[in-house]
Specification:
The complex is a heterodimer of chains A (884) and B (355). Chain A is mainly beta and 884 residues long. Chain A contains 6 helices and 51 strands. In chain A, 5% of the residues lie in helices and 56% in strands. In chain A, the strands form 10 sheets. Chain A has a 22-stranded antiparallel barrel. In chain A, β38 and β39 (732-746) form a beta hairpin. The longest helix of chain A has 11 residues, at 87-97. In chain B, the strands form 6 sheets. Chain B has a 5-stranded mixed β-sheet. Chain B has a 5-stranded antiparallel β-sheet with strand order 11-10-13-21-19, with no helix packed on it. In chain B, α2 (156-165) packs across α3 (235-241). Chain B is globular, with a radius of gyration of 22 Å. The chains are: A mainly beta (884), B mainly beta (355). At the A-B interface, β31, β32, β44 and β45 of A face β1, β9, β18 and β20 of B.
C-alpha cells in the first residue's frame, strides 16, 4: 500500500468572482433588469493531494486555503495560497488543485471565468503514521472467469496466515519488512509459492489469478494454474541485499547506489584511489560481478569514485561473500549481483545530476503499451574541477580518474508475464600521471585504461505454475591497457578480449515442498594480448617490494592469444520440511573448461609458434541448509567447491605459464540469524575458505622456460562477520557491520605462510540515515579497518650501477599500515515540484574530522626513514539531482 | 644523499665496462672504486670484492639475488680487496648461463631453462658484491659488469649482424665542469682535484654548475674516431651484417666497413654512444643511444637536485644543477659522476674554496 493522505476537500465559500462576472453584474440596470441565474462552478474531477511525507511524523493535520481561478471551460488556470499551512502542505495542496476539473460557473447559462476560495484540509489518520512493519492484502481469483476463490490459505513465511473470504480477499497486517515467501494453499488449490518484498509502513496489494480446471469424475482434482512468481532459488545462505532507495542515502556514496557494497560485511576497505573489491580475503579478481546475469569486469570506475551504472537503473545490489549456489561459478571469491530495475513506469521519467566529480543523466519512457526504453550516460570531469581550483598541473601528479559510461535498454512485454529486454552498456576509464625528475632515470609515468562494452538480451517468462524461465545471451568486449615507465624501463600491457555468455535458468515448483532449478551458464573469453617490459611490473599479489620502487630492469616482450571457455550446466533443489522451517538446498554444477594459449614457448627467431590447449571438467557440489527454530531465530550452513580459470595475462610463454590450469576453493560457513524486532535483525556468519593451485611467481632460482608462474600456491581465509541491521523504522535506517578475519597465502611448499596482501583483520562500519522532515535527510557513517600488511624494510644496500639504494626486507607482510578511521556525513534536501518532479541537493563530506589516514608506507632514498602517504583529507562533495 | 658525511662508495668503474665471459684468454677486469669521506677521496680502504654467481629468482624483484647480499657463501667468487682491484681471471665463464640468455642443456624429459631477460639496452650483467667500511658498521653494495652474451630470440642473420655491428661499451668521461653565468652561458672549466688546485666560490652563493661530456656522433662517419653501430671492422663482417634483418619487416642494415674506427678494437666514445640493440617488440635490430645520468656529491653546501641527466633522445651533452655554497669559508670537495645506460661510469673531483 502506498502512503496516502486522507485529504478532505471542502468547497468553501464561493466568494470572489472573476472580473468579467463582476463587471457583468454591475453593468446590469439594477431595478429593471431581471434577476440573473448564477451557477457556481462544480468540481467534477477531484485529485487527492499527497500527505507530505515530511509532515507525517509530526502527527498533525493542516488546512490550506487556496484561491482557484477557473476559466470558461472549467479548467484551473491559477492557484494561489490564501492561508498557508507551511511549504510542504501548501505545495501538496496547490499541486492537487491544479489538476482539478470543474464544470464552469455560469451566469444566465453563459460560462464565465471565476475565482473561488477552496479550503484544502489535510487530516492525519492512523494509516499515515509510518509503521515499522508492512501490511499485505490482496485477492485470489480465477484466471479465466475472474471469479474470486474463497478459503484459500495465504501464508507468509513469518508464520502469519489467513484465509480468503467469499470475495477472495485476504489481509495480513504487520509483516516484518524484507523478502518473504508467500504460500497459497487450500482444498482446491495445490500449494504454490512465491516471494514478495515488504517495505516498512507500506501495504502490498497483490492479485493472484488461478486458472481453475474441471474436476474429472472419479479423478483427482486437476492442478490449478496460478500466475505468480516462483521464489528465487538462488537466494543465498549468506548474502546482504540493499534496496536502491536505501543505498542512495548512505553517506560517502554521493548517492551512488552500488557504492554501498563497500559498507557490507565481509568486504575489506579498498585503499584510497582503488576500486578493488576484496571479499572474505579473496583477491579482487576472484570476486565476480554480474549485472542482471551479465558478467562485467568491474563494479566501479577507476579510483572507486563511481559505479558503472546509474542509480536510477538499479533495483538492488546483493553481495554474496561465499557459499553461493550452483547457478554461479568461475570465481574463488564472492559474488556481487546487481539487479536492474524493471522498466514498468508509466510516462516519461528521468534524472539529471551533477557534482564536482561527474555529471549524469538518464531518461525512461513508455513509448507504447508494451514497450519501454531507457537511456543513461555519465561523464567525469574531476580533472577539470581540480584544475580550476589550482594553478598546478594536478593531473600530472595525482592519478585522477577520467571515465564515462552509458546504458541503453529496451523492454518489450510479449505478454502479461513474458518480456524481453535488449540492453547495452559501455564503460571507459583512464588514469594517467607523471612524476617528473631532473634525472630521466627516475621519471615515472603511468597510464591505465579499462574499457568494456556489453550487449544483452534478457528474456523472462513467468509460467502459470509459478516457474520462471530466464534466458540471457550476452556479448561484449574488454580492453585493458597499462603503460608504465620508470626511467628507461617501460612496461606496456594490452589485453583486447571478446567475451560472450549465455545464462539460461528455469526455477519453479517440482512437487509439494520441493522447488528446483536447472540451468546453463556458459562463457567464452577470447583474448589477444601484448606485453613488453619488466616481468616485475605491474607487481603481483605476494610480491615483496616497497611503494615507488623501480621494477627490475630486465625486459622482454610477447604477443599471445588465449581462449578460455566453459559450459556449465547446473541443477539445484530446495526441499522444505517442518512447515518450511528446514530448507535443504543441494546443488551441483558441472563445469568443463577449455583453456588455450597460442604459444607454449616463447617465440624464437622465425620459428613457427606452437600453441597449447587443455581441457578439464570439474564437478562442483554445493549445499546449503537453513533451519528456523522460530520465525525470529534461524541457523544456516553452507558448503561449496569453486574453480577459477587462469587470467589470460598469466598464459604468456614469456611472462607467465601457458599451461596453467584451474585454481580451486572450498567455502565452509555456518551462521545464525535473530530477528530482534520486526525491523531489527542480527546475523552472524563464521567462514572458512581454502584455496589450492593458486598462481604465484616461480620461486625457482632456475625457472624452466615458459614457467614464470607456478601453480602450487595455497591459501586460506577464515573469520566471522556480524551484521546488525535496522530496516526503515519511522525516519531511520542503518546498520552496523563488523568482520574479523585473517587471510593467508603460501606461494610454494618450501616457504612459510604469509598474510595475504589485502588482509584486514578488522573491518567495522556503522551507518545510519535519518529523515529530518521538510525534505531534509541526514546520515552519518563511521568506518574503521586494519591497515594492509606490508613487508618491513630492515636495511638497504647500494647499487653502484644505477646509483640507487635497494631495500633489504624483513619477514614477508609482517607489519601493517596503521589503521584507517573515517567519519563521513551526508545531508540532503529534496524539493518537490508536482507529484513526480523533485530536486535533491546534497552535501556528502568524507572524512569530516580530517583524520590523517595512512594509505601506504614510503621510505626515503636510502631507506633510513619511513613515512606514510595519507589518504583523502576532508572531502566535501556537493551535488544536485533533478528527478522527474 | 648528495652530502657526504661519512665513508661512502659513490661509484664503481669497471674497466673495461663490458666483457665477453667466453673470451680466451679471459679479459682482465679492474674495479675502480670512488670511495670518499668528508675529507675527500679515501685512497686506501679494505673494500672486499666478490663475484656473486647466484641467479635471481623471478619472485625477487631487486637487482640481484638476495643471496648476493650475504657476507659469505658458496655463491661468491672472491675478486680482491681494496679501492682498486684487478681480476685477472675475468668474469666467470658461466656468466651468460647464470645472468644471460644462455641456459644449460635440458635434462631428458625436462623443458629447457628460462633465459634471463636483458635490460632495455639489451644488456646482461654479472653482479659483484662489495663490503666497504662505514661509520661503525660495514656497508654492503653491488656493482654490475656488463657481459656480452649475444641475443636470445633473434634470427641467425640477426645474430650475425649483431656480432658484427655491436661494439662494446666505453665508460663515460667528464669533459668539464663549469659555472653557468647569470647570462646562461657556461664559464671556463673548473680545475679538477687531480691538478692540485682549488676553485674559488663565494660563501652562501647559489651557483649553477654545468657538467659536459664528449659529443658522440649521431651518424656514422668513417674516420671520426668512433666505431658506430653501422660500422664493422672488416669487409667479411660487413657482408654478414648486411644479411641481418633481411627477409623481415625490419629496416635494411646499413653496415659499412671502417677499419680506421673499428679495428683492431672498436673505438668508443666517452659520451652518449649509439649502439645496436634488438627491439623485443618488433624483433628488429635497431640503432639505440645511451642516456646519461649525472650524480652530484659534495662535502658541504646543498645541491638543488641529487641527480640530473639526459634521456636517450636528448642530444644535449651537458647537464646543469644548482648548488648553494656553505655560508662559512672552507674547502668543499665536489664529485660529479656520470653513468651511461649500458653500465659505464666515470667521474671527476673538484675542490671548491669557499671564501
Amino acid at each position: 500500500m502506498s502512503l496516502r493522505a486522507r485529504c478532505l476537500g471542502a468547497l468553501g465559500a464561493l466568494g470572489v468572482l472573476s472580473t468579467a462576472w463582476t463587471a457583468a453584474a454591475q453593468d446590469s440596470p439594477a431595478p429593471a433588469a431581471p434577476a440573473h441565474v448564477i451557477v457556481p462552478p462544480k468540481l467534477t474531477t477531484f485529485v487527492q493531494a499527497e500527505f507530505p511525507p515530511s509532515e507525517i511524523a509530526a502527527g498533525k493535520g493542516a488546512t490550506v486555503v487556496l484561491s482557484i481561478a477557473i476559466d470558461v471551460t472549467g479548467k484551473v488556470v491559477g492557484v494561489t495560497v490564501v492561508e498557508s499551512a507551511g511549504p510542504a502542505f501548501d505545495t501538496a495542496a496547490v499541486d492537487a488543485a491544479r489538476q482539478f476539473v470543474f464544470e464552469p460557473a455560469s451566469v444566465d447559462g453563459k460560462p464565465i471565468p471565476v475565482k473561488i476560495t477552496y479550503r484544502y484540509a489535510f487530516t492525519i489518520t492512523e494509516t499515515l503514521i509510518k509503521k515499522s512493519t508492512a501490511d499485505f492484502a490482496g485477492l485470489v481469483r480465477d484466471h479465466a472467469t475472474k471469479e474470486p476463490i474463497a478459503n484459500v490459505r495465504v501464508a507468509v513465511d513469518t508464520g502469519q496466515e489467513t484465509l480468503t473470504d467469499e470475495q477472495g480477499k485476504f489481509s495480513i497486517p504487520d509483516i516484518s519488512p524484507g523478502e518473504h515467501g508467500v504460500t497459497l494453499s487450500g482444498e482446491t488449490v495445490s500449494t504454490i509459492g512465491t516471494t514478495e518484498t515488504f517495505e516498512p509502513s507500506k501495504k502490498l496489494d497483490a492479485t493472484y489469478e488461478v486458472d481453475k480446471k474441471h474436476v474429472k469424475s472419479g479423478s483427482d482434482e486437476e492442478e490449478e494454474e496460478i500466475v505468480v512468481t516462483a521464489p528465487r532459488l538462488k537466494k543465498q545462505v549468506v548474502s546482504t541485499e540493499v534496496q536502491a532507495t536505501q543505498a542512495a542515502k548512505v553517506p560517502g556514496t554521493q548517492g551512488d547506489v552500488l557504492k554501498v557494497v563497500e559498507n557490507l560485511p565481509g568486504v575489506a576497505r579498498a585503499a584510497a584511489g582503488s576500486s578493488a573489491l576484496v571479499v572474505w580475503g579473496a583477491a579482487p579478481n576472484d570476486t565476480r560481478v554480474y549485472v542482471d546475469g551479465v558478467h562485467v569486469p568491474l563494479l566501479y570506475h577507476g579510483g572507486g569514485f563511481r559505479s558503472i551504472l546509474p542509480s536510477a537503473f538499479v533495483r538492488s545490489v546483493e553481495l554474496v561473500p561465499g557459499g553461493y549456489g550452483p547457478g554461479f561459478g568461475r570465481g574463488l571469491g564472492g559474488l556481487v549481483s546487481v539487479a536492474m530495475k524493471p522498466l514498468d513506469e508509466e510516462g516519461f521519467h528521468g534524472s539529471l545530476g551533477a557534482d564536482v566529480i561527474d555529471a549524469s543523466t538518464d531518461v525512461r519512457d513508455k513509448v507504447a503499451d508494451n514497450l519501454h526504453v531507457a537511456l543513461g550516460v555519465r561523464k567525469s570531469y574531476l580533472d577539470v574541477s581540480l584544475q580550476s581550483v589550482t594553478t598546478e598541473n594536478v593531473g600530472s601528479i595525482i592519478p585522477i580518474p577520467r571515465y564515462y559510461d552509458g546504458q541503453a535498454r529496451i523492454q518489450y512485454d510479449l505478454a502479461p508475464h513474458e518480456s524481453i529486454e535488449v540492453g547495452g552498456l559501455v564503460s571507459s576509464d583512464r588514469i594517467a600521471n607523471t612524476l617528473t625528475n631532473p634525472d630521466p632515470a627516475l621519471t615515472e609515468q603511468q597510464t591505465t585504461g579499462t574499457d568494456f562494452q556489453r550487449i544483452w538480451a534478457h528474456y523472462d517468462r513467468h509460467m502459470p505454475d509459478g516457474a520462471v524461465v530466464t534466458v540471457v545471451p550476452w556479448f561484449g568486449f574488454n580492453y585493458t591497457t597499462l603503460a608504465n615507465a620508470y626511467g628507461p624501463t617501460v612496461t606496456d600491457v594490452n589485453n583486447h578480449s571478446t567475451i560472450m555468455g549465455l545464462r539460461a535458468d528455469w526455477h519453479g515448483p517440482l512437487m509439494e515442498h520441493v522447488r528446483g532449478a536447472v540451468g546453463l551458464d556458459a562463457e567464452l573469453l577470447s583474448s589477444s594480448l601484448h606485453r613488453d617490459g619488466s616481468i616485475g611490473a605491474p607487481p603481483r599479489e605476494g610480491d615483496i617490494y616497497v611503494f615507488g620502487e623501480a621494477p627490475p630492469p630486465q625486459v622482454n616482450a610477447d604477443d599471445w592469444k588465449t581462449v578460455i571457455g566453459s559450459l556449465a550446466p547446473y541443477v539445484e533443489g530446495d526441499a522444505a520440511f517442518f512447515d518450511d522451517a528446514l530448507h535443504i538446498v543441494p546443488g551441483l554444477r558441472l563445469d568443463p573448461y577449455i583453456i588455450s594459449a597460442s604459444k607454449v614457448v616463447p617465440a624464437e627467431g622465425e620459428t613457427p609458434h606452437v600453441g597449447t590447449t587443455h581441457s578439464v571438467a570439474e564437478v562442483e557440489p554445493r549445499l546449503s541448509v537453513r533451519y528456523a527454530f522460530t520465525p525470529e531465530i534461524s541457523v544456516k550452513a553452507a558448503f561449496g567447491i569453486y574453480h577459477q580459470a587462469p587470467q589470460p595475462e598469466d598464459l604468456s610463454a614469456v611472462f607467465g605459464t601457458p599451461t596453467l590450469g584451474l585454481s580451486q576453493a572450498q567455502h565452509y560457513l555456518v551462521g545464525s540469524g535473530f530477528q530482534l524486532t520486526p525491523s531489527l535483525s542480527i546475523e552472524t556468519t563464521a567462514f572458512l575458505a581454502e584455496q589450492q593451485e593458486l598462481v604465484a611467481r616461480s620461486q625457482d632460482q632456475n625457472p624452466l622456460l615458459a614457467h614464470a608462474l607456478d601453480q602450487i600456491g595455497i591459501g586460506r581465509a577464515y573469520g566471522t562477520q556480524f551484521l546488525l541491521r535496522q530496516q526503515q523504522i519511522g525516519r531511520f535506517f542503518g546498520w552496523v557491520s563488523y568482520t574479523i578475519s585473517r587471510s593467508q597465502r603460501r606461494d610454494a611448499p618450501t616457504i612459510d605462510w604469509r598474510l595475504f596482501d589485502y588482509d584486514q583483520t578488522h573491518v567495522f562500519t556503522a551507518l545510519g540515515s535519518y529523515d529530518l522532515g521538510n525534505g531534509f535527510e541526514a546520515g552519518l557513517r563511521f568506518r574503521f579497518s586494519s591497515g594492509y600488511p606490508r613487508t618491513p624494510v630492515t636495511g638497504a644496500y647500494y647499487d653502484t650501477s644505477t646509483n640507487t639504494w635497494e631495500p633489504l626486507f624483513g619477514a614477508h607482510n609482517s607489519i601493517r599500515i596503521p589503521p584507517f578511521a573515517s567519519l563521513d556525513a551526508r545531508i540532503s534536501k529534496k524539493f518537490k515540484f508536482g507529484r513526480v518532479t523533485s530536486l535533491e541537493v546534497y552535501l556528502d563530506v568524507q572524512n569530516v574530522t580530517n583524520h590523517s589516514n595512512p594509505e601506504e608506507i614510503v621510505y626515503n632514498t636510502n631507506y633510513t626513514q619511513r613515512g606514510y602517504i595519507t589518504g583523502l583529507p576532508i572531502l566535501p562533495v556537493a551535488g544536485a539531482r533533478l528527478t522527474w | 644523499m648528495a652530502l657526504i658525511t661519512g665513508p661512502t662508495v659513490l661509484a664503481v668503474q669497471l674497466d673495461p665496462p663490458e666483457v665477453d665471459p667466453s673470451a680466451s684468454p679471459p679479459t682482465t677486469v679492474t674495479l675502480k672504486t670512488l670511495f670518499v669521506g668528508p675529507a675527500g677521496d679515501i685512497d686506501n680502504a679494505p673494500i672486499e670484492w666478490a663475484f656473486c654467481n647466484a641467479r635471481e629468482p623471478l619472485a625477487e624483484l631487486g637487482p640481484v639475488n638476495n643471496a648476493c647480499l650475504q657476507a659469505s657463501g658458496s655463491q661468491f667468487v672472491p675478486i680482491g680487496t681494496g679501492i682498486d682491484v684487478t681480476d685477472d681471471a675475468g668474469v666467470p665463464v658461466i656468466a651468460c648461463n647464470q645472468f644471460g640468455p644462455d641456459v644449460p642443456m635440458p635434462m631428458m624429459g625436462q623443458p629447457p631453462g628460462r633465459p634471463v631477460d636483458p635490460d632495455s639496452t639489451g644488456g646482461y650483467y654479472q653482479p659483484e658484491r662489495f663490503i666497504a667500511p662505514g661509520n661503525g658498521a660495514d656497508s654492503i653494495g653491488i656493482a654490475e659488469e656488463r657481459i656480452a652474451c649475444g641475443l636470445s630470440t633473434a634470427t641467425p642473420d640477426q645474430v650475425i649482424q649483431f656480432g658484427a655491428e655491436y661494439h662494446f661499451n666505453a665508460n663515460p668521461v667528464v669533459q668539464s665542469l663549469s659555472v653557468v653565468s647569470s647570462t646562461g652561458s657556461a664559464g671556463p672549466a673548473l680545475v679538477t682535484d687531480a691538478m692540485g688546485q682549488t676553485n674559488p666560490v663565494s660563501a652562501g652563493q647559489h651557483i649553477t654548475f654545468e657538467v659536459a661530456w664528449p659529443t658522440c656522433p649521431l651518424v656514422d662517419t668513417c674516420g671520426d674516431g668512433v666505431c658506430g653501430p653501422d660500422e664493422t671492422p672488416s669487409a667479411n663482417q660487413t657482408a654478414g651484417a648486411l644479411m641481418g634483418n633481411s627477409g623481415s619487416n625490419c629496416p635494411t642494415p646499413l653496415a659499412t666497413t671502417c677499419a680506421a674506427d673499428c679495428a683492431p678494437t672498436a673505438k668508443g666514445c666517452g659520451g652518449a654512444e649509439r649502439y645496436l640493440n634488438l627491439d623485443l617488440t618488433s624483433q628488429c635490430l635497431v640503432d639505440a643511444r645511451e642516456s646519461i645520468g649525472v650524480a652530484w656529491y659534495a662535502t658541504g653546501g646543498a645541491f638543488d637536485d641529487d641527480r640530473t641527466g639526459r634521456t636517450d633522445t636528448d642530444t644535449t651533452t651537458t647537464s646543469d644543477n644548482g648548488w648553494l655554497a656553505p655560508s662559512q669559508a672552507g674547502v668543499v670537495e665536489l664529485w660529479v659522476v656520470l653513468r651511461d645506460a649500458r653500465g659505464g661510469a666515470g667521474w671527476a673531483e673538484y675542490k671548491l674554496d669557499v671564501q
